[in-house]
Write a structure and sequence with these properties.
Strands 3-2-1-4-5-7-6-8-9 form a nine-stranded mixed beta sheet, with helices on both faces. The protein is an alpha/beta fold. The longest helix is centred in the first third of the chain and has 20 residues. The protein has two domains: 239 residues, Vaccinia Virus protein VP39 (Rossmann fold, 3-Layer(aba) Sandwich); 184 residues, Adenine-n6-DNA-methyltransferase TaqI, Chain A, domain 2 (Alpha-Beta Complex).
């Protein structure tokens, strides 16, 4: 951002603090390298989302010591300062921001200067420190100093939009986290965990992150850190994946949440809005057990935004069986296409067997072969590939990934043995397949599962607890199912894909 633009913004007293900072954000955004922003997880928060985060805080009176890690141009801190000055009576605001991007330090200083001016006008003392360094290393250093009884900054408020990137198991970041007893594999969960550890008891943390942490074993330890002994008091979600970062083309579903450190859990307020500036968001206050089922040892976070969704959740979660109760297993397809390129064939021949990709899903069934210039139809059967095959038979397949154009999250296709005369078949890694201890399913049981997983109510339920476009085998394992006899009964009633019939059969369970 050039000096003249900064001066013009600082002179514009007609704008609120946050609106001025948002103008700084827009200009700064254009200066970042668009080719690396995604790889660095640099998605800055708009003024609308910033105000949602700032409004989540319960109390902004008195002495505020604010932690903002991955601060960008300081939008979140500015939103918190703006609300505090307008609605509360802060005596002093101490701002601590971390930002590692060189290009953002100047704009960050400008934003905090605006906060300083606003505090001066309100007779509120202001102090700020900018750490142009890695937050993870800095936070670990502070925690280790505390262990030694040495003086460190203390924080009673944390407001974050952390970077959204995975971190490798052998990375420096993972090693640093393990040194303080935490295991997590994503920068956003890493930042939130450390910020929570740095907060004093009773401190409030408000953050916007991907919703993906709400379920799955990948985030088990992170959910434990968030929920054990703390109060998850507010959750805000957007109905559209594009709402929170629409200018950055981010398609992950995002969630905003508030946690109070070391406070007893109470009810949870759940807010759902169609977009950032929705004037009439839906608000529900529910018991914590509806959000985190006490019977679930993995502490999945289930966000139900309406009474209609609650009815759906109660119906599906109340079904009697797990997959293991049915004698059924689900696995991820064993063939990773890019690792087996020498063996792939576009057209089947006498030396190949079918290799089923998501492209073979057509109208609820598996169509084979299909014409495609992108993906092969077959894989050469040899000593290397035979171990990745399964016996030809009846299987139910689901797509592991759904594109943004697809209206359904759960897409199931029925594979039947007459599709090929070969003894074995391969399922590509972007599919999951249901089987009976590695072998073929009973045809009517498979058809019953086919109806159930393709029903609208299951898709609606799945979206409540799955915040990304992946449908992993673990997600399908934790899902509840009708009894085996009921699934077989349903399977006997269907021969072709019929959405209306499928929905009626499942609704009448």
């Amino acid at each position: 951002m050039n000096t003249q633009q900064i001066l013009e913004l600082e002179k514009n007293t007609s704008l609120s603090i946050l609106d001025s900072v948002d103008a700084i954000r827009i200009v700064s955004n254009s200066l970042l390298d668009s080719g690396t922003r995604g790889r660095k997880g640099q998605f800055m928060t708009s003024n609308y989302s910033c105000r949602i985060l700032a409004n989540m805080f319960e109390n902004l009176d008195g002495n505020l010591t604010v932690l903002d890690a991955g601060a960008g141009v300081g939008s979140l801190t500015s939103a918190l300062v703006e609300r505090s000055l307008l609605e509360f009576q802060p005596e002093i605001i101490n701002s601590y921001t971390w930002e590692i991007e060189d290009l953002l330090i100047g704009p960050l200083k400008s934003s905090l200067s605006l906060c300083n001016d606003a505090c001066a006008e309100s007779n509120t003392r202001w102090h700020s420190e900018i750490y142009h360094t890695d937050f993870i290393q800095s936070a670990i250093d502070i925690l280790k100093l505390r262990e030694k009884g040495l003086p460190t900054p203390t924080f009673n408020k944390a407001i974050l939009n952390p970077p959204y990137l995975k971190i490798a198991a052998k990375s420096k970041e993972r090693e640093l986290l393990r040194s303080v007893g935490v295991e997590t594999g994503n920068l956003y969960s890493c930042f939130i965990t450390l910020a929570l550890m740095l907060l004093e008891d009773g401190g409030e943390l408000v953050a916007i992150t991907p919703r993906s942490f709400c379920n799955g074993p990948y985030f088990n330890d992170y959910r434990r850190v968030l929920l054990e002994g703390n109060n998850l008091s507010k959750i805000h979600i957007f109905e559209s994946r594009k709402s929170a970062f629409k200018t950055d083309k981010v398609l992950q579903e995002n969630v905003i949440f508030r946690i109070v450190k070391n406070r007893a859990q109470g009810n949870v307020e759940i807010v759902s809005s169609t977009c950032e500036n929705d004037p009439t968001p839906l608000i529900r206050v529910v018991e914590f057990d509806e959000v985190v089922n006490p019977a679930n040892p993995d502490k999945f976070i289930h966000i139900v935004t309406s009474e209609e969704q609650a009815t759906i959740a109660n119906k599906i979660s109340g079904l009697p069986c797990s997959l293991s109760d049915l004698g059924v297993e689900v696995s991820t397809g064993k063939v990773v296409d890019f690792r087996n390129k020498p063996h792939l064939r576009h057209d089947p021949d006498q030396t190949t067997v079918p290799l089923i990709f998501p492209m073979h899903f057509r109208n609820g069934k598996i169509q084979y072969p299909v014409q495609s210039n992108k993906k092969p139809n077959a894989i050469h059967l040899n000593e290397e590939t035979v171990k990745m095959m399964v016996p030809n038979g009846t299987y139910l397949l689901t797509k592991r990934l759904t594109s943004k154009e697809e209206t359904r999250r759960v897409v199931a296709g029925l594979y039947t043995p007459e599709l090929t005369s070969t003894d074995v078949v391969g399922f590509e890694n972007k599919t999951n397949y249901f089987h009976a201890n590695g072998s073929s399913l009973d045809i009517n049981l498979a058809k019953g599962l086919w109806v159930y997983l393709n029903s609208t109510i299951v898709d609606q339920y799945f979206r409540q607890f799955n915040g990304h476009t992946q449908v992993n085998a673990t997600d399908l394992r934790v899902l509840r199912y009708p009894s085996k006899s009921k699934l077989i009964e349903i399977g006997r009633q269907v021969d072709c894909y019929d959405q209306e019939l499928f929905d009626n059969l499942v609704l009448n369970l």
